[in-house]
Each structure stands twice: as C-alpha cells, then as structure tokens.
Amino acid sequence: MATFQTLPGFREFYPEDLVRRNHLFRLWRQAANSFGFAEYDAPVLEPLELYTAKSGPEIEGQLFSFTDKGGRQVALRPEMTPTVCRLVGAKASALKRPIKWFSIGEFYRYERMQKGRGRCFHQFNADIFGEPGPEAEIELIALLIQCFGAFGLTEEDFHVRLSDRNLWFYYLGALGLDDARIRGVLGAVDRYEKYGDDAFKAYAEQFGGLEESLKARILGFLKINSLAAIEQAIGELAAPAGGVGAPADKLQARLADWKKLLGALDAMGLARFVTVDFGVVRGLAYYTGFVFEAFDRKGELRALAGGGRYDDLVEKLGGPALPAVGFAIGDMTFGLLLEQRGLTPKFVTGPDVYCVIGGEAERLAAFRDIHALRSAGFRVEYPLKEVAFGKQFKAAAESGAKVALIYGGDELAKGVVKLRDLTQRSEVEVPRDQVAAAVRDLLAGP
RNA sequence: GCGGCCAUAGCUCAGUUGGUUAGAGCACAAGAUUGUGGAUCUUGGGGUCGCGGGUUCGAGCCCCGUUGGCCGCCCCA
Description:
Elements: H1 15-34, E1 38-39, E2 45-47, H2 49-55, E3 65-67, E4 73-76, H3 81-90, E5 99-108, E6 120-129, H4 135-149, E7 158-164, H5 165-174, H6 179-195, H7 201-207, H8 212-222, H9 227-238, H10 248-267, E8 274-276, E9 290-296, E10 305-309, H11 313-316, E11 324-330, H12 331-340, E12 353-357, H13 360-375, E13 380-381, H14 389-399, E14 403-407, H15 409-413, E15 416-421, E16 426-431, H16 435-444
Parallel strand pairs: 1-5, 7-8, 12-13, 12-14
Antiparallel strand pairs: 2-4, 3-4, 5-6, 6-11, 7-9, 9-10, 10-11, 14-15, 15-16
Helix pairs in contact: 1-4, 4-10, 5-6, 6-7, 9-10
This protein binds one RNA strand through residues 1, 5-6, 8, 51, 54-55, 59, 61-62, 78-82, 107, 109, 111-115, 117, 282-284, 286, 302-303, 306, 328, 356, 358-359, 388-398, 404, 406, 408-410, 420, 422, 425, 427.
C-alpha cells in the first residue's frame, strides 16, 4: 500500500488517461487554429491580488494560496481571464486587432469535489479583445460549437443557451430597481431554474420581499426564449405602462445586435445549437452584455462551458479600456458527456513496426535498422531482452503493430530481413538495404 | 464548511452469528515453446483487509476516531 496519496481532488494521468486528454486538447486546438485564434500560455502561479482585485477578498477561500519565501501572497490560478487580461492589457496598443487568443491550461480551486468538479482541472479558454460589437460573439459562439462538434456531438447532445445582461439591466432599471437590487434579482434569476421560488429567498432577506406584480414581470422576462419575445419585450420597454423607459436608441441598437448575432449563427448553420434563454445570467458581476452557457440536452450534467462579454475587466485590472468576450470549456464535465455518448474513441497506440530478433548477434544488426527506421519517423518496438521467438510473435501481435521485421540467423546469413504483414499474415524477404522502403510501402498500402 | 453512503491484491469483487495460514476472476510475469499470432494449460509475484485506537480468549467482520473516495448541500470565476 502506498505511503503517499494523491492530494484530494487532484488527478493523475496514466498513459491511457493522457491519451484521452491529449485527444481533447488536440481537437480543441485544431478548432481554435481553424478559427484563426493564436495560442498563448502564462504562469500557473500568480499574485493573489490578481484574483482578489477582480472577485473580492472572499475569493481567497476558494483558492490554493500561500505566502512564498519572498513574503509574496500568491495563488495557483483558478481561471485564465485575469491573466489573459493582464497579458493583453500590457501590450494592447501593440497588438493587431482583432485580438483572438486561446489557451489550454490547468487550473486549481480549493473546493469540495463533486461529479464533474475537482480541485484541479483543465480548461480551454478563447477570448476576443478590442471588438465591441456582436461580431466577436459570433466568432466565439461558433468556435464553442465547433469545439463540441469536432467530437461528433450534435444538437441532440448539447445546446448553447444565450442571454443578455444588458437587457436585464435595462428591464430591471425600468422597473425602478437600483443597482444593488438588480444584482440581487439577477442572483435569484441565476438560481431560479434549480430552486424555483426559493431562489428569491436571499433577495427577500436582503431587500425585503418582492411585490407579486413585480415578481411576475421578472418571471415573465426570465421566460424569454426567442427573438420574437425579445422584440416584444424591447417594445414594451421603450414605452412602459408606468415607470421610466430605457433609452430607445440603446434598445434599438441592442435589438440590432441580437438580429446580427442570431442571423450570423443561422447563416453558419449553427442556429440549431443555440437557444435563447433569459434564465441564464451567469453569477459573475463582471459580465456586461451577452452571456452564454453550454449544457447537455438532457440536463443531467453541470455546465459544459460558459462565457460572455466583459467590457470593463481589462481596465479594472489596470489595463486600457478594452472590450472583451470570452468563454471556457472545462475538461471534466465535457469528458463525462463524451463518455456518456460513447464518443471516446478507441485509440490505437501501437507501433508501426515490431522487430523479432533471434539472438544477441542478430540484435546488433537489427539495431542498425531500428535506429534508421525511427529516424525516418516510424514508431518501432523490439524486445529489450532476448526472448523466445514464439513469445516475440505473440508480443508483436499484441502490440498492434502492422508490420513485423524478423532478424533471424538464417535471414541475416542471406543478407535479407523477413517482413511480415501482421494483418495479412504474409511474409516476404527483403534485402537489408531496402527495409525502410519496404516498410514504407507496406504501411502506405491499402 | 455541512450531510448520506463507502474503503479487502493493479482492477472488479467474495469472505458464514466474530474462529485456524484472507480467496476468486481479470491483469501482470514465468514455463509448456531456441523460428511464427491475441488461445489453452501449469506455475508465480503481489495484501499492515485505508490508517489509529477500543471491545474480545480471538476482529477483514463489532465500537470510536481519522484519512481518502463517491453522491449531494454551500459555492461555482
């Protein structure tokens, strides 16, 4: 029994696990590249203030934080957004626009583990900086969908729920709520799906109960699920029955943004993945416009991905004023979904060539070819120690190799190597100086 | 931070009302097999029964604590 255990919530990746993880990363990276996003990376350890500045001091309870030997308060990164804001902010004036960046990294949160959540996890992050219009959302939501579709997930498997914190703010403001109350209501809206009416308890404790008529209007707004419903709500907002209407020009601009966003996604053939759903508001205070979250269609898993616009954050973290939109996909819930849908393919990790070697004399001859084949890019295996032929053939078959090269005394005496096609179970003798070419031909064949 | 369930070999698990030296399958390794296939047969390595304490003549089994895991709550950037 091992004396030392893995720290709670941390994961180890044995080779077969890492193969699967790499598969995720490979397809995500491919999707981002095809959308023209540039990959970056950054430190795992950051100043604690980078996170407390954004989220308040309470956040420290959720962080792996400590004081380093230089007396600095530091924390393992719990997310990428503040880091990438710093990177972009520091060179904002020198970066070509639009700034489209992505990364894949490991993150750490000091939390209790649950299904789909651990203390360390990986995230794919994609962000666009410098673009205030919905063109940025179009790119990002399309990329998000592609990051899922690349695995064979369809609209039967997941959808992206899209909402708008701007309209929420306009609406709640028009209902006469101040900023603190608006945030309180949004907190309730965020939880409404899960708790129903109980979601308003926290609000009631802080501000007193909501009037029934007010609550009914909020719940009505929460049920907005189509462009037509948005249009209608905007019409009502511009000319409210009572109270203060939101600025008409802003509302019209917002409606135009919605039309542009949904129209573009439809033109890409992605409308079937997108659900308008004002029940999504995201808990975070810093989101400023469109927000979206991806869920499995069955609603069994926690969120697969989340994102939105955060136009004020770069400036708040000390950079220039720079509009931004971004999203992140976590690897844990996403992996669960792939597993549920049987979309984690069997990975062939076998070599191209397995060498069967007679004895120590033949081994030296084989080594020359093995190294040459490996240098030529083939994946070549051989038994490290002298083993009976029967065992070697068994090992060759089990390895998954398509080709066996047989270095026996008889062959080498004739200046040849036997090349066995392990699939066809056929053999040919090949002169030693033509081994690489013969292997290449066989592997390239049908 | 809180609650429920759980912990026996690398994995999946059995283990009688508490009773001798803790078992099976799979996996791994060796042999059958010194030149041809994933099979089969034989054999083997591998366990502080998570850890610590208690009850008992005797604990894998009962009790307490602790660590870890799963699930949920809080939270979820």
